Amino acid sequence: MTDPMQAGRGRMELAARCRVVTEAQAFGLVAFCVILFNALLMGAETYSGLAAEYRQALQAAEHCCLALFTVEMLLRTGAYADRPKAFFRDPWNLFDLAIVLSAFLPLIRENATVLRLLRLARVLRTARFLPHLRILLIAVGRSLPGTASFLFIGALVLYVYAMVGWVCFADSDPEHYGSVGRAALTLFLLTTLDGLTDAVRAGLQISRLSILYYASYALLASFVLVNVLIGVVLNSLDEAREIEEEAGRVPPPGKGPDPATEVRERIATARRALDDIEAQLASADGRAGSRRLEAASRTGS
Questions:
Q1: If I label 185, which of 29, 31, 217, 234 is the partner at 20 to 30 A Cα–Cα?
Q2: How many of the other CB atoms lie within 10 Å of CB of 135?
Q3: For the whole model, what pTM was predicted?
Q4: Contacts for 178-186: CB closer than 8 Å, 24+ residues apart
Q5: How far apart are CA 122 and CA 68, in angstroms?
Q6: Whole-angstrom distance, CA of residue 13 vs CA of residue 18
Q7: DSSP string, 206-271
Q8: How many helices (H) and strands (E) in the chain?
Q9: Residues 25-65 pLDDT 10s
Q10: Distance (Å, whole) CA 94 – CA 121
């Protein structure tokens, strides 16, 4: 049977050796270059003439990239051999594992479109090696709840103004306001202020009050709501920076103290203390015994 202590030490040694490789600066640089090279290969495959002429070379290069990604994933997995649960707590590890494993699944490998999309997803792995890009992705993710609220409010404003536009301009301008759908599309395009001048001129020919309609919509949709969205994104960006700074202060696996090692060291320290106490008691008993013998010999004499 395998000794659990030896198995645990073996996993710790494997994790330590893999961490030496994965935490090296050259390892990250090579992985980053392979990702960029894979992206260039995908771009080269879009040229039909080039893809037909160098089909075998491109396929061989793709297989080499996949092999390097697999080796990288094995090393990253080995770095967590002493604490496998920590590997699955990192979302980037799960993302990388899903991208690499998907290339070996039969159903996905047979579907060229899905396989190309998954290969394209490898480009997103550059965020692992670019801290600023990682902060932006985290900020985008954290801004989704606020963005959903913004979209709901924006849709409500758009619908109200579309209904008002349909009531006021449906007969005079049916091309743009003939239905609530056309009115909403027209106002959505005016959100960027592109074509607002032509819309205002056409509205003035219908009624002078149309200036209030377009001015209020431009002020509310193009300035107030857009600034609210910018505020949500900036707030999420600050939160993402704080998260990244906190993650940087936390020591990575292997750099901080290992709980199992700490427990073993404490047990060893306690055992040494007990051995010292037993030795002191034994020496004290020996001295007491010698004293009793000396006293008995004196009494007999």
A1: 234
A2: 20
A3: 0.55
A4: 184/158, 184/159
A5: 13
A6: 9
A7: H-TTHHHHHHHHIIIIIIIHHHHHHHHHHHHHHHHHHHHHHHHHSPPTTTSPPHHHHHHHHHHHHH
A8: 16, 0
A9: 888 888 888 888 988 888 888 888 888 888 888 889 888 98
A10: 13
